[in-house]
Here is the input.
Amino acid sequence: MDPTIGQSGDRVGAVEPAQRSAALADARRRASATALRTAEAAQERRAEQREMTRAIVERAVGANTRLSIARSDAADTYVYRAIDVDSGEVIKEWPPVQFARFLEENGADASLVQDALQGQLFDETA
Here is the structure.
């Protein structure tokens, strides 16, 4: 039997168990590091999207607002609301398609617009 190391398919004579164990541990470390970098990049992307969306809403309805995303009771969709921070009054309300178009018209990238359409703009609860 010819054991192989890794995915390359290179044949080797005899592999010591310690070598095999070290190779597997190294492969796991590399996979973990890659997964960590991917997760960190996704987190940075979400933070950038949050800031971009806040800036767009702030420009449109004023600086003293917050964005609320809620599931609509009437339909199986999301509703976006700009709410005055002091009074709690709803200043503006958008359905997903209109909000996505609003983001697009104000320079948001395509992935942000797509997330808005799916109601996945933020992965947070207030």
Observations:
- Strands lie at 65-71, 78-84, 90-94.
- Helices lie at 17-61, 96-105, 110-117.
- The mean pLDDT is 79.
- The radius of gyration is 24 Å.
